[in-house]
Design goal:
The protein is mainly β and 92 residues long. 7% of the residues lie in helices and 32% in strands. The chain has a five-stranded antiparallel sheet, with no helix packed on it. The longest helix is centred in the C-terminal third of the chain and has 6 residues. The relative contact order is 0.20.
C-alpha cells in the first residue's frame, strides 16, 4: 500500500496501466490501434502523448495512453534472453 492507503493500481477502478505496442495511427481522430503482449488489440486515445509513431510502446489505462513505455524484454510467454526485439516479435 502507498502512503495514502491505496493498493498498486488505479484508485478508481483498481486496474493497472499496461504496455501496448502502437500498430496503426489515425491522426485525424487522435487514436492508435495498439496491441498488448497477449495479442489483444484496442483503440487507444493518444492526445496526452502525441506525437506517436508506429512501433512505439505506450503505457495504457482505460483506453488512454498515459505515457511512453520502455519496450518490455519478456512478458506473456515470450522467451527470455532474445534481446530487445523479442517483445516486438511476440506481438507481430
Amino acid at each position: 500500500m502507498s502512503e495514502h492507503g491505496a493498493a498498486r493500481g488505479c484508485i478508481t477502478c483498481g486496474d493497472v496501466a499496461i504496455p501496448m505496442l502502437v500498430v496503426e495511427i489515425d491522426r485525424a481522430r487522435r487514436l492508435a490501434l495498439c496491441q498488448s503482449m497477449r495479442g489483444e488489440r484496442e483503440s487507444v486515445e493518444i492526445a496526452l502523448v502525441e506525437p506517436v509513431q508506429d512501433g512505439e510502446w505506450l503505457l495504457v489505462h482505460a483506453g488512454t495512453a498515459l505515457s511512453r513505455a520502455a519496450e518490455p524484454d519478456t512478458a506473456a510467454g515470450t522467451a527470455a534472453g532474445k534481446g530487445t526485439g523479442a517483445a516486438r516479435e511476440a506481438v507481430a
